[in-house]
Prior knowledge:
alpha/beta, 5-stranded parallel sheet, 10 helices, Rossmann fold, 2 domains, 11% strand
Amino acid sequence: MDVQHEQLAHYFLQGDDQGAIEFIKTMLEKYPRAYLYGDIITPAMYYVGELWERNEISVADEHLATAICDFVLSKLDAESGHVSRKQQKNFKAMLFGVEEEQHYIGLKMVADTFKEHGWRVRYLGPALPMEHSFTQIEKYRPDVIGISAALPYRLKTIKMVLEHFAELDWNPLIMIGGRLAKEYNLKEFESDQVMVVKDLGDLKRWFNEGREETINETS
């Protein structure tokens, strides 16, 4: 694997937000945003996690890296050339981490990807209590509900929310993502209404194949 992600991880761990931004802007001159997210930023954060698991960095170091990554993603989003409000499609997405799930960096990149394709997006962040997610979904009535989890003991929560979502009268597409989707076999959850998104490449292929256009046919 290319060492670019390790270079970026170094900026994150040093708390060097300006260095990270400059590095990423240099990468954007060479690569599309999808590549940056899927092949540089995501591996950088996985690398940080691996260092923590090997006790080579502290919890504080990991939190600092996450905070810097969050800041950089927010700045990229603010400076990006997303479509104007008048050009936005009618499709709506709502994205959040399931109850007690604290990981959210991947969700922010997913939110940006939807915006890049002209979707209206509500990003509700990590660890959203179940009852509040249900309330927001009923109000917003999104075409896609994206839920994220990193750890296997979130499976019980995922099953519970999927059971509730199955009862929604407009049949939104449910996307399950996060590290859990990448590292575990979630085939049992897949259906016409539920899609497992292992990484940003899966999401990009979904858009490239024009599958978003089939949503209105099933909702």
